[in-house]
Structure formats: C-alpha cells, structure tokens
TrEMBL record:
This is Uncharacterized protein. GO terms for molecular function: oxidoreductase activity, acting on a sulfur group of donors, disulfide as acceptor. Belongs to the GILT family. It is found in: Secreted. It comes from the Eukaryota. InterPro entries: Interferon-induced_GILT. GO terms for cellular component: extracellular region. Keywords: Glycoprotein, Secreted, Signal.
Amino acid sequence: MCILEAARAQNIEVGVYIESLCPDSKRFVNNQLYPVYNALKGAEPQILTINLVPFGNAKMTFVSNSTQHPRLTYTCQHQAQECDGNIIQSCAVIKYDIDRSLGLTNCMFASNDWKTPWKSGAECAQKLGLDFKELSACANSLEGLALQYFMAGQTEALDPKENWIPWVTINGQHSDAMQKLAESNLLKLVCDSYQHSDAMQKLAESNLLKLVCDSYQGSPKPKPCESV
C-alpha cells in the first residue's frame, strides 16, 4: 500500500503528441487540452504537468552523397508546411514555459490561418507578446532541426507505439477500479497506469478534465475537479 499511496500523490503528467496541421490535434488542443490547462493552472494544489511533443507521424532520414556531409531531413504527413509548424512549436516548447508555449500552440490552431504556420505563428506571437524573430531564428537553423530530432526521439520511444494523432499518455492515474486491481494484481496496475491504453485515449479526447481529476488522488482536489 505504501507504493500505491506514493504513486497517488504524484502530479499528473499529460503527454500530448501532435502535428501542427492535423485537424484532430487542432480539435484536441483547442477543445480539451488548453481549456483544461487554464482551468487547473491557478488551482491549488498544482496537479498538472504537460509535455507537448510536436512531431506526430513525421519521418526523419539522413541523406548523404559523395560530395556532401550527411544531413538530416524530414517529411510530414500533411506536407511541408506542417514540418514548419512542428518546428515553430518545438522551438516554443524549448524556449518558453508551458504557459507561453501551449498558449502559442493553441492560438496557432485556433487561427483562421492555422494551415499557414508562419503566418499564424507570427500573428499569435504578437498577440501573446512573444518574440517571433527569436522563434524564426530557431526554426530556420540547425537548432530547430535538432529539436525535431529530439521530438522524434520522444515519439519513437512511446510504448505502445502511437497509431493515432493526437496521442495522449497519462502518469499516475487512479480510480476505484484501479484501487481494486492494486489489491489483486499490482504489477498490472503499475504497467497499465504508467502507459497508454485505448480507454485512456478515448477519455482524454472526450473529457480530459475528468481523466486528470480521476487520476489525481491527493488532498484536497483542485476546485475545477469538484464538478466532474
């Protein structure tokens, strides 16, 4: 029981694996992730940590020939502009805190120009008081490419592998059913709780606030959790 009590007190980390031009990523960030983040960010105790990973189904390859050094290139599911958006959002994730990086990502998805990430990125950066020149410099440099390589590594490390974008992972989840399972098969509970499941993915896309609040068993619960 000591192990279970310690796990129950942890913050909830929501891992969100997205693509910048994916309609389902747009819907999830605009309708679930950002509203839930705003509902919980000022609440006490702080229970939510978000790991935003803009990469999705992109593919990275090393290209080389006899006259050039090997170079890293990548292609994206929704064409080249999605790669641009992924890099811009990756630069924001690294350079800013989650409030600003998620704010920029949400704004870009909400923009009428969301399929033109250079335009939506510039407009949203101005709206949020961010330095788009800094983001552009990052996105147009080896730094931006290296960040995509980093995001690719996080995506590739998923177990089970993602087969849907947005892909959502939750750490530290708990429910009455989990408590019952802990008393009969703790290993299965630990493995199920700290990895992805189809049921968790479905609930995350329909009611992320409920999933986060159900997963957290600290006391007291934040006020927004009282209504779910």
